[in-house]
Amino acid sequence: MRGGPGQVPSFEFELVGRDRATGARAGLFRTPHGVVATPVFMPVGTQATVKAVCPEELRRAGAQIVLANTYHLYLRPGSRTVAELGGLHRFMGWGGPILTDSGGFQVFSLSQPGRGESGRAEGLVEVDEDGATFRSHLDGSLRRFTPELAVEVQEELGADVIMAFDECSSTAGGYDEARRGMERTHRWAERCRARWSELEAGKRDRPPQALFGIVQGGAFRDLRRASAEFVAGLALPGVAIGGESIGYSKRLTRDILEWVADLLPEGRPRYAMGVGEPDDFFAVVEGGVDMFDSVLPTRMARNGTLLTARGRLRVVNAEHAADPRPIEPGCDCYTCARFSRAYLRHLFKSQCLLAYRLATLHNLRFCLRLVGQIREAILVGTFAELRDEYLRQVAADRT
Fold this sequence. Notes:
The protein has two domains: 12-293, Queuine tRNA-ribosyltransferase-like (TIM Barrel, Alpha-Beta Barrel), CATH 3.20.20.105; 302-398, no CATH class. Helices cover 42% and strands 18% of the residues. It contains 15 helices and 16 strands. The radius of gyration is 21 Å and the shape is globular. The protein is α/β, with parallel strands linked by helices. The protein has helices at residues 55-61, 70-75, 79-84, 88-92, 104-109, 147-157, 175-201, 221-233, 250-260, 278-286, 296-302, 334-338, 341-349, 353-380, 383-398; strands at residues 12-18, 25-31, 34-38, 40-43, 66-69, 98-101, 125-127, 132-135, 142-145, 161-163, 210-215, 238-241, 270-272, 291-294, 305-308, 311-314. An eight-stranded parallel beta sheet has the order 4-14-13-12-11-10-6-5. A three-stranded antiparallel beta sheet has the order 1-2-3. Strands 7-8-9 form a three-stranded antiparallel beta sheet.
C-alpha cells in the first residue's frame, strides 16, 4: 500500500529475519508516524492515555506504538472533537504510531452479564445485519455502530492502523453461533473495506491509514481456517486474529495460531489481539505473530502485581515491608533503579498515586524489554534458547 502524489509515504512491511525451527519472525512495519520493529508489544491507552504514565515516559520505556479505544473515545470526548483538536497524535501528545480498535470487542462485551437465551444480554446489545445497537455505559443513551461508522470514527481519530468492525466470537457459544458471527464479520469487513477505500481516495493532506481485517470463528478449526482464508483474500494491509479466547486461553490461543498460520499473508503484519502474559509472548511469536497488545501489564501494576523474570511479584504482601531490594535486581527501569520493594509497598498501602506510576513503569519496561530480547534472539538465531530459559525460570519459581 503506497501513497499517491503528494501523500505521506504509506505502509510497508518488510521481513528481516526468521527463526529456522519455528514460525517466529522479525520485521519492520513502516507507518506515516514511524517505523515499528516487530515483534512488538503495544501498550494500551484506552482513553487516549496509557494510565499513570505520560508519553515521554512511554518512549523512554521503549514503546514504539500504542493503542487507543474507538468505543470509549467515540463516547467521550467524541471523535469529531479529537479531529478538531488536531487528531489523536496531537490530542494525546504521542508522536509515534497509533492503532485504534474498532470498538467491536467493547460493544459485544456488554453482552456478557446476564445473557439471555440468545447468548446476548437482553436490553444491552441488539445485533442485526446492518450493525449493533447498544447503550452507553456512561449515561445509558442508545447508540449504534455500523461497519461504516466504525471506519469513519477511526478516520476522524486519525490513527495509523485501524480495525474492521467485527462480531467478537465467544467461546461460550456453539458452532452455529460462531459460524453466524464469522460470516457476519466477513460481510462487515467487506463494507469496512469499501468505506475505507472511499475515505482514502478522498484524502489530500492527511496521512493514510491501514485497515486490518479480523479473523474470527470461535474455537472451531474449520471456521478459523475459513475466516483466515477470507480475510487474507481481502488484500488489506494487515490481518488480526480476534475473539475473546485470544490471550485468555493459552491452549486455545496456541491452537488457533497453529490452525491459521499457513493461510496468513507472509508479507503483511499479523496481530494477535489481547495477549499480555509475558510467557505468552513466546507462544504467539513462535506462531508467526508480529504485533500483540493487552491491558494486563498496566492493570496488574495498578493492583500491586509486578512482573519479573521469575513470574509475578505481589509487592503489597507483608514479606516486602522491609525489603530493600528493587522489584527485580538488574532491571533497567526507572523504578528499579531508584526504589525498593519496601517503598513500593508503602506507597500502595498509603494509597499514594505515585505507586501506580512507578509500578506501571516497571511492568511496561519489563514487557517491552523482553520483546526486544525476543526480536534480537530471532535475528541471531537463539530464539529457542531464550524461550526455554525464560520458561524454565518461571516454572522453577512456581514450584
